[in-house]
Design goal:
By secondary structure, the protein is mainly alpha-helical. The chain contains five helices and no strands. Helices cover 73% and strands 0% of the residues. The protein is flat and about 50 Å long.
Length: 82
C-alpha cells in the first residue's frame, strides 16, 4: 500500500495515465482510503481540466513552436562520434 508522500509524488503521472495498471490501481486504492489525498488529487485534476480547456483556443507563437521543435529534434539526435 502506498503512503501519502509517494501517492502525491505520482500525482501527475497518475493524472496523465503514464503509470502501469498496477500503479494506477495502487494509487486509486490509496485515494479511496485517504480523503486528504483524494481532495488534493481532485483539486489538481480540476485545475488540469480548466487549463486544458482554456488552452485549446490559444496557440503558441510560430517562433516558439519552431524553437521547441528544434530543441526536441536536437535532443533526439544520437550522440556524435568523436
Amino acid at each position: 500500500m502506498l503512503n501519502c508522500k509517494k501517492t502525491i509524488e505520482l500525482l501527475y503521472p497518475y493524472l496523465d495515465r503514464e503509470l502501469s495498471a498496477q500503479e494506477l490501481e495502487e494509487i486509486q486504492e490509496h485515494l479511496d482510503m485517504c480523503p486528504p489525498c483524494a481532495r488534493h488529487f481532485a483539486l489538481e485534476s480540476g485545475m488540469l481540466r480548466i487549463v486544458s480547456k482554456a488552452c485549446k483556443s490559444v496557440q503558441a507563437p510560430a517562433a516558439l513552436r519552431a524553437r521547441v521543435m528544434s530543441t526536441c529534434m536536437k535532443a533526439a539526435e544520437p550522440p556524435r562520434s568523436q
